[in-house]
Design a protein that fits this description.
Blueprint: H1 9-30, E1 43-45, H2 46-53, H3 57-62, E2 84-86, H4 87-96
């Protein structure tokens, strides 16, 4: 049985504050209203997601990815597969949990 790591509240709060600062900057640069009303976003690898939210790659893949509120990858959900997230899902998560406003 696989154990799921849960972050301490203070560490999670610090990570979210860091992501909030980075998210506000990214939101100003990269969010444009979609023409057809559907926001899909470009695919991001785990390393790109980690860079975007400002956390180390290994922390993303071992702890944050197991948090219930973190977006699930839309591709590569099996063990050992390359995982891809939608940019819009990550920005929405950053907005919802104190990120880009």
């Amino acid at each position: 049985m696989t154990e799921i790591a849960v972050l301490p509240k203070d560490e999670l709060k610090r990570m979210l504050e860091k992501a909030a600062a980075r998210g506000a900057e990214l939101a100003l640069r990269s969010i444009n209203p979609p023409e057809n009303g559907v926001m899909t976003g470009k695919p991001l690898s785990a390393k790109e997601v980690a860079e975007m939210i400002g956390v180390p790659y290994n922390r993303l893949m071992t702890k944050l990815i197991n948090q219930p509120h973190f977006p699930k990858p839309y591709l590569g959900t099996g063990k050992g597969q390359r995982k891809l997230w939608r940019e819009s899902d990550i920005l929405q998560w950053m907005t919802r949990f104190g990120g880009a406003k």
